[in-house]
Amino acid sequence: MEAASLPAALELVAGGGVGLSPEKRAVLGASLLLLQRDYRFERVWFWGCVQGLRGAYYIAEGLGPDRAAPRSRLYSLNCVEWSLLPPVTKEMVARAERLMGRFQGDPSFEYEYTEINAEDAERLFEDGKEPVIKEEARLVATIEQIDRAVGIIPRGAFVKTPLGAVHENRNFEGLSSTEAKKLSSYFHFTEPVNLKNKTLLEKADLDPSIDFLDSLEHDIPQGSWTVQLEKGGTVVVLRSLLWLGLTFYHVPMTTQYGYIYFGTGEKNLDLPFML
Amino acid sequence: AYEHGPYQPHEPGYGLYQPGYSPYDDQIPDPKSRMLAIQNAKAYLLKSSTTSGLNLYDHLANTLTKILDEQPTNAVDIIENISKDVKWAQFQKKMDTLRDEHEILPTFEAAEKRKALFLKTNGEEELEEEIEETPLPNVMETAFYFEQAGIGLSKDESYHIFLALKKLVSVQPIQTCRFWGKILGLDMNYIIAEVQYHEGEKEEEREEEVIEEGEKGMAEVEDEDEEKEKEDEPPKSIYKPQPVIPKEENGTGANKYVYFVCNEPGKPWVKLPPVTPAQIVCARKIKKFFTGRLDAPVVSFPPFPGNEANYLRAQIARISAGTQISPIGFYQLAEVERDDEEEQGGGGDTYEENPDFQPLSVAEMVDSLSTWVHHRQSILKQGRCVWLNPFQNSEEEEENEEEEKVEDLDELQQEIGPPILTPLSEDEGIQNIPAWTAQLSTNLIPQYAVAILQSNLWPGAYAFASGMKFDNIYFGWGHKYSPESHAPALPPPVQAEYPSGPEITETRDPTLEEELAFKAASEEALDAAEEEEEEEDVEDDEEEEDD
C-alpha cells in the first residue's frame, strides 16, 4: 500500500488481527520517505511483514515511472535501516518453491537441500553452484511469488498508455458498492496470462487502456478469495486463501485501496482440502 | 335607478341618459348588477368543456401565470403557442413513473445495529451500581498491550466488541467473561467470548436430553421387531461400533468454559454447544475453512460428527488447551476435595489466582520459556482431558461380548497428559521449530516493553505479560500449523463380508496329472469290480446249472 496512506490503511486491514505496533508505524512514516529520496523512487509501497521464527522482515517496494516494471524490493529488520534485495530470477523462484517451513528470521541463514534427486544435484554441481540457498534469496523469491499470484488492484486504478507504460489513473474514483463485491472488478497486477484466451466477444467489451490485466474471476481454485464487507459495510476486504495473510482493502466510491501481507511467507498448499 | 349602465362617473355615458328613458330600464339594474355580471362571466368561463374537461378560466389563468413566470420576449406574438403548450402540459403527469428509489443500502442497516450498541437501554440501573464488580473484561486495556506488539484489531472494532460483550454480560448470568479472539471465515468472521456461568446455574441442556431419550426409545422398538423375525434371518452383522466416549461434564475439562460467538458486534450472541471427544478426535484429522455460518455442514473425510458450530467449538477447545498460558506463579492449584474414584491421572483442572504473585521482569519473561505455564488442561488423544475407560459402564451390552470386553480392557491403556501448570519449556516443537517465539514489544524503550509470545503451533495465538497483567488472544483462521501438507485420512480397507473358512472356500480345480491319475485309479477299480462281477456271474451261472 502507498506509504502516504499507510496509517489510514492499517486501520482498515486490522480486521485480520495482525498489524504494526505504534513504534513501527511512527518510524515508517519517516523511513519510507527517506527511502524514496535515497533510491529516487516515484512511489514507495509498504508491502508487509514476513514473520520468521526469530525475527520479522518488513518489506518495502519502490516503483519507477512505469508501474508495471519489475520493482525494487527492500527489507528491514527494524523498519529503520533498509537493505536492497537482489533482483529475482526464475531460477531463484524455482529453488525457493521447493523449500518448506518457516523463515528463520536471519537473513544470512542458509538452507540446505535435503531432498534433491541425483539429477538435480548433478546439474547444480555442473553449474558451479552449491545446493544451498540463502534466506535473502528465499525471501525475495517469496515476495515475487506473492506479488505475482495475489497482488491485486481494482479495475480502473491503472491505465496503460499506448506506448506500453502503466500509470495510475487520475480519473479513478473508486468502484461502486455493487462492483466492489464482484471478483471481476479486481485484477492481478502482473503480466496477464489469460487475457489472450478470451473470446472475441468478450474482448469487444473490454477497454484496452483499463482491461489489460487478468481478473480474479478465473483464479484456480475457485473460492480462493474471500470477499467481505467490514466496518459496517463501508470497506471491502479481500483476503487470499492461497497465501494466508494477504489482505486487500478498498473503500468503495473513493480512491483508497491497497494490499498488504502479514504472514509467515508460506503458501497454503492444503487449500483444495480446506474449501 | 340607473340607466344603461350603471355608468360610473368617469365613463363616457355618464349622465347621458335620464332615469326612465334608457334602453335598459326594463332590466334589473340593481346596485349589485355589476357584481352579478362579473359572476355570470366567471361562471361562463368556468364551464368545463364537454370534450376536454378543461375550462377556459383555468386555462387562461395557467397561461398568464406561465407567461408572467417565464416572461418570454414578444409574448403577444407567440401567445397561441404558449396556450397550446399549457394545454399539452396538462397531459404530462407531474411525476415520472420511473422514480429512483432511495437505496436502502445494507450499510445503513449495519450502521443501525452498531449505533444500537451505543444506546443505553431503558430501565438501567444507576451509574453507581454499574461500577461494581462486573465480569466484563477491559477489552481496551488488553487491546492496548497487544497493540504494542502490532497485534489486534482496529480501535473502533475493539470498542464495538467491548460494547457487545457488555450486552452479553447483562443478558446472561455470567461470572467471568473474556474476549477469546476472532476467527476468520470465508463469508463472515466469528468473534468469540469465553464465559463461565455462575455456579449453580443450569444451562439449557434439557433439549439435548430429550433427544437422547427419544433415540433410546427407538432402539428398543427396533429390538422387539428383530426378535419377532427369528425365523429366516439374514446373517447378523458382527460389526461392533466403537464405544462412544461420553463428553465431559459442563464445567470440567474441555467443556470448562462456555463460548459465545457472533459474526459482528451488534449481532446477537449465539452459544456454542459443548464439545464431545469424537468431535475433537475428528477435528484433528481434518482441515477446513470456516464459512461464517454456524449451521453450515462440514463436508470432510472422516465425516465430522456435527456442523460448523461443533467444528468451531472443537477448534476453540484445541486452541485453548494448547495456547492458554500465564506467567508462572500467577495461578496456583486450588485444593479441591476429591470424592470421585475415577480421578485418575491429570490432577484436576481447578486453579485459582495466587494472591502472593510476584511478577518477573519482562526481560526474564522473554528470555526463557520456563517462566510461562499452561493453565488449561491439555486434551488427550481420546478427546477428553480426563481419561475415561469406555468399557466400564457398559453393563447393558449383550452377554456374548463379555469375552471380548476383557480383551479390549487390556489393550486400552490409560492416557495421561501433562498436568496443569506445566511450563512452556516442556512444549515440543515441530521438526526444528520451537513451539513458541518470545519477543519484547520494543527494543528501543525496554523499560516499558511488553513481553509477547507467539505460538508457532497455532499461528495466531498470542500472549502478553507486563507486570501484573497478562492475557491470551487468538486472531487467525483456526488451524494448526503443520510443515507437511495436509494428508487426508484414507478410507479404511474394505471389510470382509464373511470369515473365510473351509466350508466356503472353493476347492482348487484338479490339475491334468491329478485328473489322469484319478482316471487311472478309477479304471483299475472298475476292472477289479468287473472281475468280481464276472466271478459272481459265473458263480450264479454255476449255481443255476446245478439246479
UniProtKB/TrEMBL annotation, chain A:
Principal localisation: other
Key words, A-Z: Cell projection, Cilium, Cilium biogenesis/degradation, Cytoplasm, Cytoskeleton, Flagellum
Tagged with keyword Cytoplasm: yes
GO cellular-component term (any): kinocilium
Keyword Transferase attached: no
Matching InterPro entries: RSP9 (IPR055316)
Any single GO BP term: cilium movement involved in cell motility
Localization of this protein: Cell projection, Kinocilium; Cytoplasm, Cytoskeleton, Flagellum axoneme
Coiled-coil annotated spans: none
UniProt record similarity statement: Belongs to the flagellar radial spoke RSP9 family.
Name by which UniProt lists this protein: Radial spoke head protein 9 homolog
Source organism of the structure: Corythaixoides concolor
Lineage of the species this protein comes from: Eukaryota, Metazoa, Chordata, Craniata, Vertebrata
Automatic annotation (TrEMBL), chain B:
Entries under InterPro entries matching the protein: Radial_spoke
Region of interest called Disordered, as start-end residue ranges on this chain: 199-248, 486-547
Transmembrane segments: none
Compartmental location: Cytoplasm, Cytoskeleton, Cilium axoneme
Pfam families on file: Radial_spoke
GO CC annotations, alphabetized: radial spoke
GO biological process: axoneme assembly; cilium movement involved in cell motility
Keywords of the record: Cell projection, Cilium, Cytoplasm, Cytoskeleton
Record's compositionally biased regions (Acidic residues): 220-232, 524-547
Protein name: RSH4A protein
Naturally occurring in which organism (per UniProt): Corythaixoides concolor
Lineage: Eukaryota, Metazoa, Chordata, Craniata, Vertebrata
Gene (UniProt): Rsph4a
